[in-house]
Design a protein that fits this description.
By secondary structure, the chain is α+β, with helices and mostly antiparallel strands. Helix content is 24%, strand content 30%. The strands form 9 sheets. Strands 4, 5, 6, 7, 8, 9, 10, 11, 12 and 13 form a 10-stranded antiparallel sheet that branches. The protein has a 9-stranded mixed sheet with strand order 32-34-35-38-39-42-43-46-47, with no helix packed on it. Helix 12 packs across helix 13. The longest helix has 20 residues. The protein is globular.
């Protein structure tokens, strides 16, 4: 068991290799290539610059090595002084082989690793990201037969994620001029089948619900969805040729709700070109597809092969691939899993293959013209990631017989060049620079033999200790508007803190780290998952919060990370980050809490989503952020990342907001009865958008939008509400209410006012829970057109699982305000429970009248049932009916709540800045002549009743 701190625990990805070593799975050509691609270093100018040039009395070219760092470097120095760089390389290899082992930083990995990928890596077949996951290899012959791929891991993932569909794709294992042909679902006999043995032992066979194949070249825009065959082919050099074909299949898997005992994908196929065996790789894909529209041109592909290409990877992105492919392939993400596989198996084929890949990178990247050659290709961020993986792998390779002196020198020479580069490189975002300094730390700590290491370590520590001063807003929020990147910065810093401690160094900035983790904890959804705003996916952050609670000694983080099982409860529930421009309303910290996040943030990786809300309640993500998918120029990615339409906010004239526009959360209040938030943005070019959100604890919201155009023209306003794929929304006749129908957990009833003047639609959208995964979803849009100010008001009512709600709203006329300056509604929850709500979008010049009430502030909410009364106010002094003055304050109130139970004689008063008072000149007068006990913000207080008015609290 790994006893190290969790933040430094190595990712164990090897597992078992199904009874075979990597060597047993590799073609002989791969092993031969490993021997053929040794780097050359004997007598080169690069070696002279690395080992130094001695003229007999002085170093005319200073060595990059510190020969005084260890006595075992003396033979290296002697050989370098003699100009025998081959001997210097041999002595250097001997030094590192005998050097005491060092614990490196954990390697980084960008995907979901499975042991069968080791042979693929060696054969230059690589997958970007987590959206395509290796499953198995099947072999067809010249005669048609049924082949079976083990896809148990894919079905387990689908069951755990509660997916109703699972998709696969097929690609050629070897580049050869032959085509594998499989029967499609339209072929009749031999159609694809997914055979699943469920957890209870029963077996079910699922037919394919969609299948097709794609082809490059002249057929790149052609759809083959109606063909009776699925074709798989790859040949030639490079990532693909005009003849490359890949096949895609989808299966609906109703009833598979637990990890199955086994799952087999059964295909009937043959090698249609030759009477020879042909291997085909089976991947799970997390990208939903349409059989009738999928083509090579519109498919985001993340797996490419250079198998058999004498040049191997060119370390650049293939034409048409996600741009990240060309950045992430040079990060050597395969190095960590391969190093672990070699260390655990002792298989020299793996070590030779890994060495071959790294030296191939050095040769190619040294020729691409970057300032430090392979040491700086292609960018500083990629170099930083690569170095962490390379240093990790080198710790295993340094003792391998497969690592020649020449290759060892080439590796160390390039790592040292990266050190010099990273010491001076800059970056556009905090996460870039942090990755650079992490790598610089890894080089300096792991290779004190380099002459620059001491300076590099000080360089990295100085930046890292102070980085949060520029990476955080004054309120502690992160300057990049994405929780995914913020968590990356946190995890990198936390890991570095422990790594440096283990090596005898300290790193400052822990107080700022704690502030950032607390900021992220405040954003977290109940139950532990991140909200996934900006370019992010959603992940369970509970374990990380527990780890940081331990590292930082913060019992509050421990409480949040454990869902309240241990630690100390936070001193707040809802919170405002005014500088970051984010507010969160929540009822508590346990999984059953209600939660709403609203933002007007900005910064790198942000989306045009000002005033969008994310809602969790009744155990479900009722209004999610829809994710990002990829950085590619894909219509789904572009919709998710670059449109306002894909977020739960208002879009004006079908135009995306301007990211980084002036915006603010200008009003915020929270107390034991309600929260109130108001925010505005000028991101919509045609109109200022103001959104107010009233949270009536423990779990309902009223959202009001006010759009004030800058001209007199007619505009189109669309209020969008994004929903998960499993929400199954419907629009109710008459009320136009949106009603979800989750199979598990609670639901949402969203009821708009003025239904007759709205155009309500359920539209098709997309949802990307994590990068490289995307699926179809639905969203609801309410459209209103007009000139002048426009308003939308809606009730958001979470409904517990197994229950239904028929709550309705009725818009109320507002007197005393200009057109569009205020809005109001009457809410009927049931025959016994009703409420009235009003909001002034602009400061009222006089009290407004709505329904039975008059009010002179910003927001009023009055609710009554058969026993209790509730009055919630923000701003103003007076709430009244024609029969009585209900609340009357001598000074303007901020947030003020009164919950009354006449039958019990109890009055609960809540609000910010209130103090106990029975002073008739200062106290708020409340219509509760029957009061027998009173609390103020949860504490009992003395009171008096004068002229039927309760006096117990005053504005402080």
């Amino acid at each position: 068991m790994d006893q190290r701190h969790p933040l430094l625990a190595r990712r164990r990805v090897l597992g078992t290799m199904a009874g075979a070593t990597a060597a047993g799975l590799l073609p002989l050509g791969s092993i031969a290539r490993a021997a053929e691609t040794q780097a050359t270093s004997n007598g080169s100018a690069e070696d002279a610059g690395f080992f130094g040039i001695w003229d007999g009395s002085t170093w005319t070219t200073q060595p990059r090595l510190d020969y005084t760092a260890a006595a075992s470097l003396k033979p290296v120095e002697d050989a370098a002084r003699a100009g025998d760089y081959a001997a210097a390389g041999e002595a250097l290899r001997k030094h590192f082989r005998s050097r005491t082992a060092k614990e490196p930083l954990p390697f980084l990995y960008n995907g979901i690793f499975r042991p069968g990928q080791i042979p693929l890596f060696i054969d230059h077949i690589w997958t970007l990201g987590t959206g395509e996951i290796y499953q198995d290899v099947v072999t067809v012959t010249g005669s048609a037969s049924t082949v079976s791929a083990d896809v148990t891991e894919a079905l387990t993932r689908a069951a755990e994620g509660k997916a109703s569909e699972v998709m696969f794709f097929l690609m050629a294992r070897d580049k050869e001029p032959s085509t594998a042909v499989f029967a499609s679902r339209d072929a009749g006999a031999g159609a694809p089948v997914l055979e699943v043995t469920k957890a209870d032992g029963s077996t079910v066979a699922f037919p394919a619900t969609a299948d097709t194949y794609i082809k490059a070249g002249d057929d790149a825009t052609r759809n083959f969805g109606s063909d009776s065959e699925l074709r798989v082919r790859d040949e030639g050099v490079g990532a693909f040729t005009a003849e490359t074909c890949k096949a895609y299949l989808a299966f609906r898997i109703e009833g598979v709700t637990q990890a199955p005992r086994s799952a087999r994908l059964k295909l009937t196929g043959r090698n249609a070109t030759a009477a020879a065996d042909k291997r085909v790789i089976v991947f799970q894909t997390l990208e939903a597809f349409n059989q009738t529209t999928r083509t090579w041109a519109n498919t985001v592909q993340n797996t490419f092969s250079w198998q058999g290409d004498p040049g191997g990877f060119d370390w650049k992105g293939p034409v048409g691939a996600d741009p990240e492919y060309g950045y992430q392939l040079p990060r050597l993400y395969f190095a960590g899993p391969m190093a672990d596989a070699y260390r655990q198996s002792g298989d020299e084929t793996i070590a030779a293959g890994l060495t071959s890949l790294i030296t191939d990178f050095i040769r190619d990247a040294d020729s691409y013209g970057t300032a430090y050659g392979a040491g700086s290709f292609p960018r500083s961020l990629d170099t930083g990631n690569r170095i962490v993986n390379w240093v990790y792998a080198y710790e295993s390779l340094r003792t391998s017989p497969s690592l020649t002196a020449a290759d060892n020198t080439a590796m160390l020479r390039t790592i040292e060049k990266s050190g010099r580069y990273l010491a001076v490189a800059s970056g556009p975002n905090p996460n870039w620079i942090q990755f650079q300094k992490q790598a610089l730390t890894a080089i300096a700590v792991h290779f004190p033999e380099f002459r620059g290491s001491a300076e590099w370590l000080e360089n990295a520590r100085t930046y890292l200790s102070a980085q949060f001063r520029t990476a955080l807003y004054p309120d502690g929020g992160y300057v990049e508007s994405t929780d995914g990147y913020a968590w990356g910065v946190v995890d990198t810093f936390g890991g570095l803190t422990k790594y440096l401690q283990d090596n005898g160094y300290e790193l400052g900035g822990k107080a700022e780290l704690d502030r950032l983790v607390r900021f992220l904890a405040d954003q977290n959804l109940p139950g532990g998952f991140s909200p996934a705003y900006g370019d992010s996916g959603t992940f369970d952050r509970g374990p990380a919060l527990l780890q940081y609670g331990e590292l930082l000694g913060d019992a509050t983080l421990t409480y949040i990370g454990s869902d309240g099982a241990r630690g100390t409860a936070p001193d707040h529930t809802s919170v405002l980050y005014p500088d970051t421009r984010v507010a969160v309303q929540r009822s508590g910290w346990r999984p059953d809490a209600a939660y709403l996040r609203i933002n007007a943030d900005r910064g790198p990786h942000s989306h045009p989503d000002d005033l969008a809300v994310t809602v969790w309640a009744e155990g479900n993500r009722l209004l999610p952020d829809m994710g990002a998918f990829t950085y590619s120029n894909d219509p789904r990615s572009n919709w998710l990342r670059f449109t306002t339409e894909s977020h739960s906010t208002v879009e004006v004239d079908a135009t995306a907001q301007k990211v980084g526009a002036d915006a603010s959360i200008d009003l915020f209040a929270t107390n034991g009865a309600f929260d109130f938030t108001r925010a505005w943005t000028d991101g919509n070019f045609a109109a200022r958008h103001t959104r107010t959100v009233l949270f009536v604890r423990p779990g309902l919201w009223i959202v009001s939008d006010h759009l004030r155009p800058s001209d007199t023209a007619n505009h189109v306003y669309r209020q969008n509400w994004q929903l998960l794929p499993e929400a199954r929304p419907a629009l109710e006749d008459g009320s136009r209410a949106t009603v979800t129908d989750f199979a598990e957990g609670g639901n949402l009833r969203l009821v708009p006012t003025h239904p007759s003047s709205l155009r309500a639609e359920v539209r098709n959208g997309y949802y990307s829970p994590v990068f490289y995964s995307v699926m179809d979803s639905k969203y609801v849009t309410y459209t209103r057109e007009g000139s002048g100010p426009v308003t939308f008001d809606a009730l958001l009512l979470p409904v517990p699982a197994g229950q239904q709600s028929t709550a309705t709203v009725e818009d109320l006329a507002v007197a005393g305000a200009a057109a569009g300056a205020a809005s109001a509604m009457a809410i009927t929850f049931s025959t016994e429970r009703t409420a009235t709500y009003a909001v002034a979008h602009t400061a009222p010049r006089s009290p407004i009248a709505f329904g039975a009430y008059t009010f002179d502030g910003t927001v009023a909410y009055a609710e009554a049932d058969s026993q209790r009364r509730t009055w919630l106010l923000y701003g103003g002094c007076r709430l009244a009916t024609k029969d009585a003055v209900l609340v009357d304050s001598p000074v303007a109130l901020k947030d003020f709540a009164v919950r009354l139970d006449p039958a019990r004689g109890t009055v609960a008063i809540d609000g910010t800045g209130l103090v106990p008072s029975t002073d008739a000149d200062k106290a708020v007068r409340i219509h509760a002549p029957w009061a027998a006990s009173v609390t103020l913000n949860g504490e009992a207080v003395s009171f008096t009743v004068k002229s039927s008015k309760l006096l117990a609290a005053a504005a402080g």
